[in-house]
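Notes on consecutive records. When two proteins share a document, each keeps its own sequence and its own token line. Never mix them. Below: protein one.
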Amino acid sequence: MRGYFGIGAEEISKPMNLGALMRTANAFGASFFFTINAHPKVREAYNSDTSRSFDHVPYYPWDSPETMLLPKGCQLVGVELTDDAVELPRFQHPQAAAYILGQERGSLSPAVIARCAHVVQIPTKFCLNVGLAGALVMYDRLLAHGGYPARPIMPGGPPPEMNTKPKAKG
């Protein structure tokens, strides 16, 4: 898979949500993880991050959208329910992207939205848990950039000898 991605959240306050998001980011091969103005108690995220992502994925805790520094060419992609957001299944992911999710009980701030090159939404009836939303975005990126062939027309998968999915790392 070419390119890279990072993922993070703005004003996240629940340690278990942060830990779950970090563990999922590690599992999907994120290059970095970040927060913007995270609540101080998120340091307890170790309790729910059984993969100890802090030891494997760089973590950047920025104080504000203005202090956030992304690598050159990395496009910020907001994940938010807005009228003008592109539905995730219709979105072409940038090769170099940083995905940002909003706080648990609110939306991305106008300052973050202003920094976003793209805003996407998951086509659901209402907001999802931040950890689940992040997992869906990373899974969609994997499908888009992972080199998987088109799905079969009939239900089921390809014959076992044609199943070329990457092996999971233990």
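Protein two starts on the next line and is unrelated to protein one.
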Amino acid sequence: MTKEIRDLTPKYTVPGIEREAAGRLIGLLRMRLHALNDLHLTLKHVHWNVVGPHFIAVHQMIDPQVDRVRDMADDVAERLAALGGVAQGTPGALVSERTWDDYAIGRADAIAHLAALDLVYTGLIEDVRTSIKEAGQIDPATEDLLIEQLRDLEQFQWFVRAHLENASGALATDTARFEEEAAAKGAQLG
């Protein structure tokens, strides 16, 4: 699905960055902000809708992730504003500009949710890595911000994957391509 490309060139930006380059960073950070706001809501959805024997472990594991993701979103929004952009944090902006679908799992077993969440983290981490490469060509401060966030997101995925990994190191959901498929495979583990 192709989204409308807007000219996000600011009227001013931080010293040492051309306005057009800042506009590219603003566009990149705008999508990171949407992704982080979406992840925050998805994590709370999982927190509220997880059931089964692993309920309390997953329920308690998710909240610190929610808190850190909210902090990440704040950092991205503030960097976006410092570059001269507008941090669009409304649900309408997120829904109209995102390039992904809503999280597909409702009330489900903890392991099923974690299996689906693993795919969410994979997509997000891949996008952050792409953003780091682009930001690195323009601005080391924005690149550094994204690298710091990448480390935390990868750690959160590791926490999730620890529940999905067998003793030989294989992920039960390694061939899943869609959240529903991953959740079904995860439910078989639970």
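For the record: The mean pLDDT is 94.
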